[in-house]
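Issue 218. Parser rejects a valid record. Input:
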Amino acid sequence: MKAVLGVDGGNSKTYALIADLDGCALGFARDGGSNHERIGFAEAEVVLQRVTSESLTQAGVGSPVESGFWGLAGADVPSDFEALNAIVARVGAAKDNVVENDLCAAMAAGLSRRWGVGIVFGAGFSAGGIAPDGREIKLPSMGAATGDWGGGGVLAMEVLRLAHRSYDGRGDASLLEECVPEVLGISSFEELPARIRDESIDWDNALAELPPLLFGAAAAGDKVARALVVRVGEEVGTTAQALIKRLGLQDTDVEVVLGGSVFRGKGSLLLETVRAVVNEGAPRARVILPEFHPVVGAVFRALLHLGIEADDRVRRNLRSTVPAELLDPRETRELQDRSRSIEAADSSATA
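Output the parser choked on:
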């Protein structure tokens, strides 16, 4: 049986999905993070070998499959691609491979066509876009040095900063002051300096758990939390607007795909803010939360590499055969539906 492989490798998790040429999912596996910037190239190779082998076993398909698309966090500069392409060749899971930044898989999971803009706000922050004529822009996405503000780690530390300022009186009172200590494993902020000094804070857990607290507090009406959510939305919207302008898409119905865990936060404030900022400069642009997990987007790209479009039939087949965790959660879909309702109301008002 002919098949393709899609891989989505991030900071904390790596996913591999095998599908046949009709888009029917055959095998799926997950593993730990494979970003070489965090764990090194050698360990990244171990993870990629393990997760692809498991997916092939689950599929009952021998390697190599026909085509593989690898969306990998940390694939940013030529030296990254040289090392990652060598790793993919040694893994040997597919005959013909394409290695791109994980942003590309996230975009493919949400775009209904080959062009558009994508922004990923998960553990890190990345953004890029493709014009109808094939021109591409990929922001360096290397943090503050390359103009970025965002990513789950940056956001988590800002949540911690605001919670502490609420506690010590330098900032406005916030619900964050009450809920952040539990995530850090402390009873009060008085313990924090000593725990920082003896390195007993589980920062990996904190960086994962603090952003959801932000959205919960914002949904409860906390002004400090809401202001930070708006700041995130404005940054995402400004980034999307800049890409749209550079690609000359201001007057089109360009799709702006939002990927990453931050966009799954509670409440509609973030998405509504992004949409408002984007539509200031591109009134017809559509903000989209992907229906599929990025690893499904990687499968779409692997199929496209063979000349097979991700048409309605392929999408329908994948939708009905992939594990439920690879489909957009219901609450996120409802959030997108609410945004579309707002968009429809705005259109009616201006008609």
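Fixed in the parser; the record now loads. Residues 330-346 have pLDDT under 50 and may be disordered.
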